[in-house]
Amino acid sequence: MQADEPGSLPKISITSLTRVFDTGGSRLAALGPVDLTVRPGEFVSIVGPSGCGKSTLLYMLGGFLQPSSGSLLADGRPITGPGVDRGIVFQEYALFPWLTVADNIAYGLRMKRMQAGELRDRVAAAIAMIGLGGFEHRFPRELSGGMKQRVALARTFIYDPQILLLDEPFGALDSQTRELMQDELLALWRSTGKTVLMVTHDVAEAVYLSNRVCVMSQRPGRVVAQFPISLDHDKGREAVMLSDQYRALHDQVWLEVRRQVGGKG
Amino acid sequence: MMTARGPRVVERIARLYPLLLLALLWEAVTRLHLVPPLFLPPLSVVLASLPQLLAQGDLAMPLLISLYRAAIGLVIAGVLGILLGLLIARVRWARLLFAPLVAFGAPAPKIAFLPVFILWFGIGHVSKIALVALTSIFPFIFAAQDGAEAVPRQQIWAAQAMGTGPWRLLAGVLLPAALPALFSGLRIALPYAIVTAFTAEMIAGGGGLGGALVMAQRYFETPTVYADIVVMLAVGYLLDIGLLALRHRWLRWQEESNDAPN
Question: What are the tens digits of pLDDT across the range B141-194?
């Protein structure tokens, strides 16, 4: 309902979107039809059963995969391919293994042809912000999973895309690191006001971070339920996660996901 | 550093003891007159002939000519082969156009083209360089293609999302990502290049160490023949060692699990 506020053009509009895979003659409906609108500055999470096509949806928003039918708009313009207005962070980090931490983070700025001096300052600031001072000249293979994902987040935030697409960004991390990273992401999002669309398996993560959680059905995935969320994060993680409001929301979303996993088709 | 390096060099030399065994066997067989010296002169005689050959300029100059031909051919093969391999991996029309040609050419006996190249380019450098390039281009093509196709799609997508265009993607992402595979390809292509240069010179003349070897054989200078062979073996071995050292330096970023030679 908030998406219909006057004067707020949707940041992302997804209309009747489907994706069909051709697998040697037989056609497999992977996704949709999906309708979803995300308004500027909103943090929306998508949860659903494995294989429901939620990552495929994200990859189409990134412009890496083409829809089979339907329309995809970012800022009112059709998405025809990858673009620097949409940054993406993957579960497996997808850092460039031949580049150091500093060069990985600088990559997007180099593509923008930023001047060397300014680039150096911005990269140094980003490295300080993610707490990786002293690791500038290390290669990704020398980093822990949490450090790699910090680098992946930093290299995406630094070139300032308006939309962030997060593909199970913390799925490969242990639970302590995951909570730490969630709070870092939350702080980044709150300070930058970017529009975020996150795909995750983790209901707790989705409810904790998002303004809205969308639950998808089994393949071919459709959005079957949406839960608006407004938690007061100023009180800190413990207060939020122990609050009745959070627990009630968590249980509702969890129950809906469970229904979808159990339900056929 | 010094303490770690010293034992490693000793260890590496120690691991060459089968060579020493072979050398001793060679020396023994010849000293006991089990074979005529015209067929196989003693190793000590062969080694003793090296300084003299060097002094006469009968070794260094032919070797440099051979290495020059091998190197130029290898560079041409590397540049063209890497470009072709990357294009075949990423670009549909390039795959449709070049993949059948590569499949057809790779197993072909390249030496058969030597008469043709001599006809076209003469018996000097150019025909040998062309044959070296033709022989050693295929390992580069396969290595570049395999390396580029093994890049995780998320890495490519991440690069595209950050504003990497198609050419920049080839040169700035797929090429460095394929470097470990390319080093493996180079390790195959380098001996191909040297062997081809020597072989072409032996068959077609036109100087070089291969030519020198054939000339020596023609005048029954058997120690010189073996001296040339020993130099060829040593050159191949030293170049391979140099290559491994380069890989160690340049591919520090590579995952340890991929370090094992394959």
Answer: 999 999 999 999 999 999 999 999 999 999 999 999 999 999 999 999 999 999
User: Could you tell me the pTM of the whole model?
Assistant: 0.84
| CB contacts, 8 Å: B180 with chain A | none
User: Closest partner residue to B163 among A96, A99, A111, by Cβ?
Assistant: A111
B169 vs A contacts (CB less than 8 Å): none
pLDDT tens digits for range B63-85:
999 999 999 999 999 999 999 99
CATH number for B92: 1.10.3720.10
**DSSP output for A105-133:** HHHHHHHTT--HHHHHHHHHHHHHHTT-T
Number of domains present in the structure of chain B? 1
Residues 24-83 in A contacting B (C-alpha not used; CB under 8 Å):
59, 62-64, 81-83
Q: How many CB pairs under 8 A join A and B?
A: 70
Q: How far is A143 from chain B (nearest CA, A)?
A: 11
Q: In chain A, which residues have their Cβ closer than 8 Å to the Cβ of B255?
A: 97, 141
Domain of A49, in residue numbers: 2-85+161-262
